[in-house]
Design a protein that fits this description.
29% of the residues lie in helices and 27% in strands. The chain is α+β, with helices and mostly antiparallel strands. A hairpin with a 2-residue loop joins strand 16 and strand 17.
Amino acid sequence: MLWIALHLPALSLQIAQRAGCEARPLVISDGPCARPIVFAANAAAREWGVKPGMPVAAARARARELLTLQREPNREAHALESLAGWAYQFTPCVAIQPAQGLLLEVESALRLHRGLARVLARIREEAWELGYHTAIGVAPTPAAAWLFAKARHAGRVPRTCTDLVQLPERLRDIPLALFDWPPDVIRTLAALGVIHIGHCLALPRDGFARRFGEALLGDLDRALGTVPDPRPYFAPPERFASGIEFDFEVTDATALLFPLTRLLKELEGFLRGRGAGVQAWSLTLAHAGRRTSRITLGFAAPERDAGRFTALARERLNRVAPPAPVIGIRIEADQLFPYAARSASWLPEPGQPSSEWLHLIDKLTARLGEEKAYRLQSHEDHRPERSVRRVSPKHRDRTPAVALPRAPRPLWLLALPRSLLTESGHPLCQGRLHLIAGPERIEAGWWDGEPIGRDYYVARNPHGETLWVYRDHRSAAGWYLHGIFA
């Protein structure tokens, strides 16, 4: 087995900064309400001398305009679940390290991702695009990978280990302080000169277990891989939901694109892991006073590319103005569809619509509105004016397609048939019409009280225009123009 650990230092601070505003001094507070302490501080706050562990009152005395946010463990847990759904695209074996990061078992997926170096580069780059700063560790055991990731965050640069035989040597210089052991145990070991894992491994096992307990010895054994270390794997949900809260107000809708892009990249990773796409997703804008507004965007075919999502969102946001300042956004996708990746060949696939055509439809729908963009669908009715109906571009009808008549049909059908003059019984339209095809008799509509009885002809006038006309057996007017051929 081969594990990749993603350590997210100060996760609560990273969540608060995902909206992209980092200029103002910001701290995350924790501890009792009467005397909260600084749990994490951003770079702007650290420039004023604010440090983790400092009382919040002392931090406020040092930094001007300090913004303080309360730590929310439930929010951190939800963020890790969303990140695990994104990481599911790399491997189905994803485990959550509570409040700290993720563990990914990737050995079985390395061939799919074309090697360890490529998958590490993708994880590092895409996590950065999501707004997360990660420290990465690689080892044959999850505990060792986690220690390597924490050591990298602490300023050490441990060598990547992919061989279990080499693991004891690579772990030798890792500080014991990186274990989640009680502080008094770490201090006692340090007083004895036992600072690194190598020092600990040199001690007698029985004596170490009697003095410090079997649990700590078990942590060492799991890191070395001498005992099993099973991890519960994350199961992705059936729907996607994720959001970002701001510590400022946004009045310009286009300013929402930066945090929205991060959420849409998260959605893309989730869909890739599920092998799915979406035909619709919704954007909810949170306003002050618990007010919300909602925008829904749809696609002509299942899609999962974050770039396409962002392009449509930009089209829609350019057309709307938030009813009130926005303090948070949330995206949701409730219904997933199977997604078939389009061929990379420059030759078009038989029976497959062009992706550029589908993207044009999506863009027009987002810009003009769904009521202005539609497609035509054949309908089971012999009356020509009712044989085609308008449907949404993303409408998918599971009923079998209705076969079109073999007789010629014009592309342009008049909204209402136009009565024609006649001369000696012959129809006129900019001159006497010459009937070149027909008749085609259509008798229908008796079932709904709107019957017709017509003989249709293809006709040509002296100007060379080809028309679709009919003779109505139920009307005294006789002849009508119903369509024009291209």
